Amino acid sequence: MHRTHEYYMQRCLDLAAHGLGKVAPNPMVGAVVVHDEKIIGEGYHEVYGQAHAEVNAIAQVRDKELLSESTLYVNLEPCSHHGKTPPCADLIISYQIPRVVIANQDPFPAVAGRGIARLRKAGVEVITGVLEKEAYELNKRFMIFHTQQRPYVILKWAETKDGFIDQKRLPNDDQKPQWITNQLSKRLVHKWRTEEQAIMVGTNTALYDNPQLTARLWEGKDPLRILLDRHLRLPKDLFLFDQSVPTLVFTEQERESIHQLEYIRIPFDQNELKAVMHELYHRTIQSIIVEGGSELLQSFLEQNLWDEARVFIGNKHFRHGVSAPDKPDKAFEIELIGSSELRTYFNRE
Q1: 87: cis peptide before it, omega within 30°?
Q2: For the residues of 291-317, what is the DSSP string, one character each?
Q3: Residues carrying an active site annotation
Q4: How far, rounded to the nearest angstrom, does the alpha carbon of residue 38 sit from its chain's CA centroid?
Q5: pTM of the prediction?
Q6: I need a surface site. Which of 31, 43, 202, 244 has the fewest CB within 10 A?
């Protein structure tokens, strides 16, 4: 059976996906070595700072002499610079691999076509653009980060069937937030937290809900916690100040940072969200989930600082309360999560 370039590239994407939540700020990359239409080596970038996909795939090839007669498939342009590991382009050239098939060019300025140029200069046949859209979707966080100089922003909220995200509550009363969705949805949200680098809430959400913003219900790394507290009015007994997880607090006030709790002073004006995005970009934070209240979420929507909106719609009715943000006028996908509906909106051209 004749296998196409798309067949082997799909295998690269399937391998690469195993790196989700483990390799950031690096991209997710898979590589496959094919000889006479047979895969003789494959691998993926498993952990940030460790071997790249091409290195792992080539290492799996038992008979290295076959490499000079093989094709290497990889979903992102091989690196051409010395980072935490040596350039993969040089490794490919050293084994005299005659053909490399690539999905996406790397937008990272230190690569950005240089890997492809180096391979071609060495006489390697390079084919690009195979499953390009699918590969871009896999590495959307990495791509947005390097092309728009900001993190990939995911907005998340849950609303009732009649469009409320909460009932009217006071900070000092004993009324707890009513759960709108279900336990399956809650576990899914915790899984999402392990897949992104950071998570954000505003002052009111911290005050009313006292969230932990950790991934307690799913195995994986807790995200960096981000809090907006303009006047530093939040009580210090909240979970967000427990110093158990690295936490950034954006504020207008001066406050000395302590262990795992860093205060960053910014002006709170019409551009505070852009100032936050700018700071996160310079800290190499490639993705963030915003789980704030209606006001914060609406601000992201109105300023067009978002890439996905994940909206749970439960089967409850509040009849009155805190109105949900305006759902985007964009294409969306629907999935049933137990008794709740999950709509995922995409901010694409």
Answers
A1: no
A2: ---HHHHHHHHHTT--SEEEEEE-S--
A3: 54
A4: 33
A5: 0.92
A6: 244
